[in-house]
Amino acid sequence: MKWNWGKGIVVAMIGFMGFILYLVITMSTDNAYHHDLVTEEYYAKEMVYQNEIDQESNLNNLSTALTGQKTTKGWLINFPEEIKNENTKGTVFLYRPSNQKLDFDFPLVLSGSNLLIPDQRLVDGRWNITIQWETNNKTYLYKKSILY
């Protein structure tokens, strides 16, 4: 049988289609390649996320924004004047992306309208701060990434 370029093209096309078919079957049947975009209890998680959005919008409606700065004693966060310690309950969570052992949280206790995170607890580098609190039956959420 004589081999020519027409037979070569047909063999190449059949080989390519066989390779693609093999990939499609492997990807659709192998459990290692199952990556669902939708999580279990999707709607419940969406409602929790909607609460976070509402809390962050409450934060944006305050008279002034929260500001943070590094001081010799630690990281100082200044709250607006309407946020006082007497009617505020909440938590502060600090997350260290590079080392899980350095993560910590503590209850929110303001001094006037300020919060000081002590220098002894913080290591130089990146931190993610999450403060969630309630004042006058309104909940607030502050998330910030800082370099200490």
Draw up the topology in text.
Elements (H helix, E strand, L loop, with lengths): L4 H25 L12 H19 L6 E4 L3 E5 L9 E8 L8 E4 L6 E5 L7 E10 L2 E10 L1
Antiparallel strand pairs: 1-2, 2-5, 3-4, 3-6, 6-7
Summarize the structure.
With 148 residues, the protein is an alpha+beta fold. 30% of the residues lie in helices and 31% in strands.
Note down, in words, how this protein is organized.
The structure is a single chain. The protein has 148 residues and is of the alpha+beta class. Strands 4-3-6-7 form a four-stranded antiparallel sheet. It has a three-stranded antiparallel sheet with strand order 1-2-5, with no helix packed on it. Helix content is 30%, strand content 31%. The chain has two domains: 35 residues; 106 residues, Immunoglobulin-like. The longest helix is centred in the first third of the chain and has 25 residues.
Helix proportion range? 25-40%
Q: In CATH's first tier, which class of the largest domain applies?
A: Mainly Beta
Flag low-confidence runs: none
- How many alpha or pi helices? 2
Q: Give the strand tally.
A: 7
Give the termini distance in whole angstroms: 77 Å
Question: Please, what is the average pLDDT?
Answer: 85
Give the C-alpha Rg: 27 Å
The SS-based structural class is: alpha+beta
Widest sheet, order of strands: 4-3-6-7
Sheet of most strands = 4 strands, antiparallel
From N to C, what is the helix and strand string? Answer: HHEEEEEEE
- Count of the separate structural domains: 2
Give the name of the CATH architecture of the largest domain: Sandwich
Briefly note the CATH topology name of the largest domain. Answer: Immunoglobulin-like
Shape: elongated
- Percentage beta strand: 25-35%
